[in-house]
Specification:
45% of the residues lie in helices and 16% in strands. By secondary structure, it is an alpha/beta fold. Bound molecules: ligand 9MR. Ligand 9MR binds next to loops.
Length: 354
């Protein structure tokens, strides 16, 4: 396999560099080095009882070198788009699981687990849903049917669901989505209950961005989660997307934040990690990015209930960033040519490679 060759070549190069640098490397040290290089991020994470995953998207799956790394380096995948409402229920009552199933089949072939993403979100909704007004009873029925049909279909095939995605504004008020406007804040508890009925074993998460650090938006989740737990609503975790940007600073309270959710009896996960920068990428920016990848990994490992980390795809070749933030990019640990960047080695270090 090309990857194995790369790894061995890499290990050889490291050993050669050490020798050239005059550092003593006996056969044992070299074997250790090689052994370390051969461990995948997933294997390193497993030693801490965590998974290490990547998002992927259906159109990317024809790219063989890409899928080879996706299948070998990670033990968890998330469909970037294939399980969203527009894809799974393109016409009212007509369900299409082809894209999600393709991801699930790939995961099974590679013995990876799958995070379901996402049941209720204000974005990427089908036209039939957004193009008309609904009464509360109508929308409730539509929502319940969607959630239960999708969750039932993937029962036993996904270990967790991002049930409600991006429900709050930056100031911690509820986002005025079609669901909130029509049904009020209770749509979140209802959706969690419906999902739980459809699959009593799957872990149910609320998921959002800009909630890595402690602040008004993560406070809103903390408050809501506490209420939901008090009402015995089936909520199991909070997903912190972690779409970070060098120009906005590192969320230094990440670990404390993970801990306060753990104290509510909830799991946490870093669900959509990337660290973007203003282009061009320089050595300095890539070094800082590597530090952030290291630090966020260390934060997750420090909190027992932080169950795993998912990159929002693993290579700059398929990152969503340049399309959404013109002039920004280079956000992932592998570059556009699938070459590992400093961030990749920082991840290995944080996962305790040696
Ligand atoms: O990665 C997804 C990209 O392909 C889509 O075009 C985009 C549409 O908004 O959604 C991206 O994924 C988002 C995820 O579903 C929720 N959190 C933010 C992600 C980046 O936009």
């Amino acid at each position: 396999m090309p990857r194995t060759r790369t790894r061995l070549a890499l290990a050889g190069a490291v050993a050669a560099a050490l020798l050239l640098g005059g550092i003593a490397t006996g056969p044992a040290a070299q074997a250790d080095e090689r052994h370390g290089e051969e461990r995948t991020l997933a294997e390193l994470a497993q030693r801490h009882g965590r998974y290490f995953g990547s998002a992927t998207d259906n159109p990317e799956l024809v790219d063989a070198p890409y899928t080879a790394l996706l299948g070998s380096e990670f033990d968890q995948i998330t469909p970037g788009n294939g399980m969203k409402w527009y894809a799974t229920e393109p016409q009212q009552g007509v369900f299409d699981f082809s894209q999600g199933d393709e991801i699930v089949d790939l995961a099974r072939a590679n013995r990876q687990k799958v995070r379901g993403h996402t049941l209720v979100w204000h974005s990427q909704l089908p036209e039939w849903l957004t193009a008309r007004e609904w009464t509360a009873p109508e929308l409730r029925a539509v929502l319940k049917k969607h959630v239960q049909t999708v969750v039932r279909h993937y029962r036993g095939k996904v270990f967790a669901w991002d049930v409600v995605n991006e429900a709050f504004n930056e100031d911690g008020t509820y986002r005025e989505t079609i669901f909130y406007r029509t049904l009020g804040p209770g749509y979140i508890a209802d959706t969690l209950r419906w999902a739980h009925q459809a699959d009593p074993h799957v872990k149910l998460y609320l998921n959002d961005y800009n909630i890595e650090g402690i602040g008004p938006k993560s406070d809103a989740y903390h408050r809501l989660a506490k209420e939901l737990k008090a009402q015995r609503v089936p909520l199991h975790g909070i997903g912190l997307q972690a779409h970070l940007a060098l120009q906005y600073g590192y969320p230094a309270t990440l670990e404390d934040n993970l801990r306060r959710f753990a104290r509510l009896g909830l799991d946490t996960a870093l669900t959509e990690v990337d660290v973007r920068m203003q282009l061009p990428a320089t050595e300095e920016k890539l070094a800082l990015q590597a530090e952030w990848y290291r630090d966020l990994t260390a934060a997750c490992l420090a909190v027992r209930r932080c169950v795993g980390i998912t990159l929002w795809d693993y290579t700059d070749r398929y990152s969503w960033i340049p399309g959404f933030f013109p002039g920004e990019g280079a956000a992932l640990p592998w570059d556009e040519d699938l070459r590992p960047k400093p961030a990749y080695f920082a991840l290995r270090g944080a996962l305790g490679e040696n």
